[in-house]
Amino acid sequence: MLADLMAGAAEDADARRAVIPLAAVEAEALDQPAALDAREALRRGPNVKIIAEVKRASPSRGDLADIPDPALLASAYEEGGASAISVLTEGRKFKGSLDDLRAVRQRVSIPVLRKDFISQPYQVFEARAARADLVLLIVAGLGQTELAELYALVGELGMTALVETHSAEELDRALEIGADVIGVNARNLSTFELDPSLFGTLAPRIPDGVIKVAESAVLQPADVARYRADGADVVLVGEALVTGDPISTLTQFLAV
């Protein structure tokens, strides 16, 4: 599944590049205001912090929610206390777009994450051109040289990389490149199976000072509480918010 998602996202990026060349996107990226300080926004606090996600669909669940105005939802997330907004920009399986990201960025004043299947510099420049503050890099989908080069580019453009892992070996690879915002995804992106205990297993291996983000397998406050007890600074939540009452659910999660 991950290989298909990475390949599809790369094909779509190639199609966009055929219309808007790399040089043009790079120039647009460099012309944007400075990215917001996502590390400061996500740094550990007395309560867990939430990255709230704009998510219409997923490969495992299909359609989740009709979100005609992603900026309106993101604004509600911000008012509800989210520390950052995640925007799915993958179009084939998640039904997102860079237009969603642009709309959200114009409406909110907190950091915005481009969540996609990034494998090439063009996609990183696109993220900054759309004024993303964070970019997701998935260790399992990248070779170590690719990962290091993309991580460096994200930093050069003033953004923050959320480096996603799903095993001890992937975590070691993330630490090797100096990642200081590391996600542990309970969902195996190759099989899409969930292991809610994975964060608790890997968190002790993450050094102090690295922002720890727990991803997936969040349905209720008890799930957030478990992640927090296991050391999470931040929990990224998508499906639980968009499939229920987003603000009531967010409020309950933030109380942890």
Layout of strands and helices, then pairs:
Elements lengths: L1 H18 L2 H9 L7 H5 L6 E6 L2 E2 L3 E2 L6 H11 L3 E5 L9 H10 L4 E4 L5 H9 L4 E5 L5 H13 L3 E6 L2 H9 L4 E5 L12 H5 L8 E5 L5 H9 L4 E4 L1 H4 L3 H9 L2
Parallel strand pairs: 1-4, 1-10, 4-5, 5-6, 6-7, 7-8, 8-9, 9-10
Antiparallel strand pairs: 2-3
Helix pairs in contact: 2-6, 4-5, 4-12
CATH topology: TIM Barrel
Encode the helix/strand succession as letters: HHHEEEHEHEHEHEHEHEHEHH
* Gyration radius from CA atoms, angstroms: 17 Å
Number of strands: 10
* Total of domains: 1
Record the strand order, biggest sheet. Answer: 1-4-5-6-7-8-9-10
CATH class: Alpha Beta
Determine the mean pLDDT: 95
Overall form: globular
**Class by helix and strand content?**
alpha/beta
Structure description:
- Pfam families: IGPS.
- Residues 4-245 form the Indole-3-glycerol phosphate synthase domain.
- It comes from Okibacterium fritillariae.
- There is one protein chain.
- This protein is an alpha/beta fold and 256 residues long.
- The chain has a single domain (1-255), classed as TIM Barrel, CATH 3.20.20.70.
- Helix content is 43%, strand content 17%.
- It contains 12 helices and 10 strands.
- The protein has helices at residues 2-19, 22-30, 38-42, 70-80, 98-107, 121-129, 144-156, 168-176, 198-202, 221-229, 239-242, 246-254, and strands at residues 49-54, 57-58, 62-63, 84-88, 112-115, 134-138, 160-165, 181-185, 211-215, 234-237.
- Strands 1-4-5-6-7-8-9-10 form an 8-stranded parallel β-barrel, surrounded by 6 helices. A two-stranded antiparallel ribbon has the order 2-3.
- Helix 2 crosses helix 6 and helix 4 packs parallel to helix 12 (246-254).
- It is globular and about 45 Å long.
- The two termini are 33 Å apart.
- The mean pLDDT is 95.
